[in-house]
Design goal:
Helices cover 31% and strands 27% of the residues. The protein has 459 residues and is α/β, with parallel strands linked by helices. The protein has three domains: 56 residues; 165 residues, FAD/NAD(P)-binding domain; 184 residues, D-Amino Acid Oxidase, subunit A, domain 2 (D-Amino Acid Oxidase, Chain A, domain 2, 2-Layer Sandwich). Strands 3, 4, 5, 6, 12, 13, 14, 15, 16 and 17 form a ten-stranded mixed sheet that branches. A hairpin with a 6-residue loop joins strand 13 and strand 14. The longest helix is centred in the first third of the chain and has 25 residues.
Length: 459
C-alpha cells in the first residue's frame, strides 16, 4: 500500500474511533503534523456522524415508511445520455438506483446530435484544452468498449483561397489535437495529395489549396443511449419509462418522489436526486420542493438535415461561408447528414423544430462545397443545447461547453442538476456526479469500473 493510501486509511480509522497500534509514529511513518491530523480526523468524525444519522434516523424510508414505498439511494430524472450515464455509473459504484423518463430513451437532444464521438477539434479555438483532452480519452474508451456502436472514420478539412483558417493554422490545430490524445494512433492526421482530390466525390476543387484528413469516430446516439441504459439494468438498476415526474419533496435525508406511470400515481423514496432533464432541467427543478439551486440558461438549437443520397463514406469538416462556423457532412445509413446550426430558442422544448433560416443556411453550405449534388432532404431534426446564459446571441460557439454540476448545498448535497454535457463525455460526467454523491452517501463497494463495462448494440 502506498503512503497516500496508508494516510487515508489511518485518518478514517481514527475518525471512527479506532486506536493506533503501539510504536506508530504519525509524523515519521505517515508524514502528518498534529494540526493536519486533528483537522482530518475532526472532519471524518463529523461526516460519519451525519452519515450515520441519515442511515438510521432521518430517512423516512428506513424508519417511518408506513406505506412501504420503494426506496433507492439515487433517483435519476431524465433518460437522455447524461441520465443514462449517471444510472450506469451509480449502479456500478454499488448504489441502488432508479431512472424516470417521461417518453422514450434518448427522445430529446440525445437523439438529435451530430452522432459524433470526438474530442471537439473546434473547441481548441476557445482554449478548452481540458475538455478536448477528456473527450479524446473518452473516445478511446468507447472505441474499446463499444466496438459495435462506435467506429473510426476519416474527416476531411478542405482549405480554399478564401478560407478564414489558413493551412498552417489547421496543421497546428491538428497537431495539438494529436498531442492531447496522448499521440494515439486514432488521432493521427495527414495531408491529402492533390492527385487524390478526385476521390473526394463531388467536393468543389476550384480554388482548393489544401486538404487535411484526421481520424475521429461516429455512433448512433439513440442506440448508444439504449445500450448504456441496458448496461445499468444488467447491474441491477430499475427504470420506469414512460413515467412522468409529478413532484419531489425534500424530507429528512432525501426526497419523496411522486410520478405517474400508466395513469397510476407512484411514490418512491431516495437519498439523492439527480436532475438530468436536459433542456427541461429548470422545468424539472420547479416541481422540486423546496426549489433547489438553478442557473440561468440559454437553449441553443442545433438543426440537422438528412439527405437521401450518400455523398461519401467518409466525413467532411467544413467552414460555413456565411459565418465561419464548423459544419459537418457525414455518412448516415444510406444517405448523408449535414449539421449543425446554433439558433437561440425561446419556448417549450417540445416545440423545437428546424426553421426555414436553418434549412437555408445548411443547404447553402451543401451547395457551396458540393455544387453537383443531386440528392434531396428526406428528414430534419433539431435538438437543444443547454448553455450558460449569454448576452451575445450571435456567437454561441464561443460559449464554453464544459458541463456544470449544480447542487443544493456544498458539504452534504442531496440534489444535483446536470447543465450541459457532451455525448462523448457522458461517462466522465457521470463519474464526476458519483464523486459528489459519495460526499453524502459514502463510498460503497464498487461492482465494476465503468471504464471496463462493455456496451453492446441492442437489436
Amino acid at each position: 500500500m502506498d503512503t497516500k493510501r496508508k494516510r487515508t486509511s489511518v485518518i478514517h480509522s481514527l475518525g471512527k474511533g479506532h486506536s493506533l497500534n503501539k510504536g506508530h509514529s504519525l509524523t515519521k511513518e505517515y508524514g502528518f503534523t498534529k494540526e493536519q491530523l486533528y483537522h482530518n480526523v475532526s472532519f471524518i468524525k463529523e461526516r460519519q456522524k451525519n452519515i450515520e444519522t441519515q442511515h438510521y434516523t432521518n430517512i423516512p424510508s428506513y424508519t417511518n415508511n408506513k406505506n412501504n414505498h420503494p426506496n433507492y439511494d439515487i433517483i435519476v430524472i431524465g433518460g437522455g445520455i447524461q441520465g443514462a450515464g449517471v444510472l450506469q455509473a451509480a449502479q456500478a459504484a454499488g448504489y441502488t438506483s432508479l431512472a424516470l423518463e417521461k417518453s422514450a430513451w434518448a427522445a430529446g437532444t440525445s437523439s438529435k446530435s451530430s452522432k459524433l464521438i470526438h474530442g471537439g477539434l473546434r473547441y481548441l479555438q476557445s482554449g478548452e484544452f481540458s475538455l478536448v483532452k477528456e473527450s479524446l480519452q473518452e473516445r478511446s474508451l468507447l472505441l474499446k468498449n463499444a466496438p459495435g456502436l462506435v467506429h473510426h472514420n476519416w474527416f476531411h478539412i478542405p482549405v480554399y483561397r478564401h478560407s478564414r483558417y489558413r493551412p498552417w493554422k489547421i496543421w497546428v490545430g491538428l497537431t495539438l489535437y494529436w498531442l492531447l490524445s496522448g499521440c494515439r494512433k486514432e488521432a493521427r492526421f495527414k495531408i491529402v495529395s492533390k492527385k487524390k482530390w478526385g476521390e473526394l466525390k463531388g467536393l468543389k476543387t476550384e480554388n482548393l489549396i489544401k486538404v487535411f484528413k484526421y481520424c475521429d469516430a461516429q455512433t448512433d446516439d439513440v442506440k448508444l443511449t439504449e445500450s448504456v441504459i441496458q448496461s445499468a439494468i444488467s447491474l441491477g438498476a430499475e427504470v420506469r419509462c414512460p413515467a412522468t415526474l409529478i413532484s419531489a419533496t425534500q424530507i429528512k435525508g432525501g426526497y419523496k418522489v411522486s410520478y405517474e406511470e400508466g395513469s397510476v400515481k407512484q411514490t418512491a423514496i431516495c437519498r439523492f436526486l439527480v436532475n438530468a432533464g436536459g433542456p427541461w432541467i429548470n422545468q424539472v427543478a420547479e416541481v422540486v420542493s423546496p426549489q433547489p439551486n438553478t442557473i440561468p440558461i440559454e437553449l441553443v438549437q442545433g438543426a440537422h438535415l438528412v439527405l437521401d443520397k450518400k455523398i461519401n463514406d467518409e466525413c467532411f469538416y467544413l467552414e460555413s461561408p456565411e459565418d465561419g462556423r464548423a459544419v459537418f457532412v457525414l455518412p448516415w445509413h444510406e444517405g448523408s447528414l449535414i449539421g449543425t446550426t446554433e439558433t437561440a430558442f425561446d419556448g417549450n422544448p417540445e416545440n423545437s423544430k428546424t426553421t426555414d433560416k436553418e434549412r437555408e443556411y445548411l443547404l447553402n453550405i451543401l451547395n457551396t462545397y458540393f455544387p453537383d449534388y443531386t440528392g434531396t432532404v428526406s428528414a430534419e431534426m433539431a435538438g437543444l443545447r443547454v448553455l450558460p446564459q449569454n448576452n451575445d446571441k450571435e456567437n454561441f460557439h464561443q460559449i464554453s461547453r464544459e458541463v456544470q454540476l449544480i447542487t443544493d448545498e456544498k458539504q452534504l448535497p442531496h440534489y444535483l442538476g446536470i447543465y450541459g454535457g457532451k455525448l462523448t463525455g457522458y461517462r466522465a460526467t457521470a463519474q464526476k456526479v458519483v464523486k459528489i454523491i459519495e460526499k453524502t452517501l459514502c463510498r460503497r463497494d464498487q461492482r465494476i469500473s465503468t471504464k471496463d463495462l462493455l456496451l453492446k448494440e441492442i437489436l
